[in-house]
Amino acid sequence: VFLTIDIRFCPALIDEIAPQVQTIFHDCETSPFATGVHAHYNDLNTLSPNTKAKLWLYHYQPTPTQDAEKDGFQGFVKKGQVFQYFEPEQRISESE
Asked: With contact defined as beta carbons under 8 Å apart, do 25 and 6 qualify?
């Protein structure tokens, strides 16, 4: 898992990381105009389909108008959404 935090659009970094991870959580601006503070949805949408298929978008403006899933992303992370990437450790009984 790779998590971006307050990053501008950096396709070279994402292209380098994507083959090494299962999931990328990427901060994403969804406003009509890019501010340059975060990666904008329109920029992220130019990434390859294989890379976009690993991206969950977060830190976006309320009620985005874009359809992330239709555009090939995993989607927009929803408040309270839980992601689990491993099985919880199995407890070993004391008798073993």
From this structure: no
For residue 82, give both structure tokens. 């839980």
Higher pLDDT, 62 or 20: 20
Number of structural domains found in the chain: 1
DSSP summary character for residue 36 = S
**Domain extent at residue 27:** 2-76
- Is residue 19 included in any domain, yes or no? yes
Give the number of other CB atoms < 10 A from CB of residue 81: 10
Tell me the pLDDT tens digit for each residue of 5-42: 989 999 999 999 999 999 999 999 999 988 888 999 99
What pLDDT, in 10s, does the model give residues 63-85? 889 999 999 999 999 999 999 87
Can you list the alpha helix ranges (DSSP code H) found in 22-96?
41-44, 49-52
CB 58 within 8 A of CB 3: no
In a domain, 92, yes or no: no
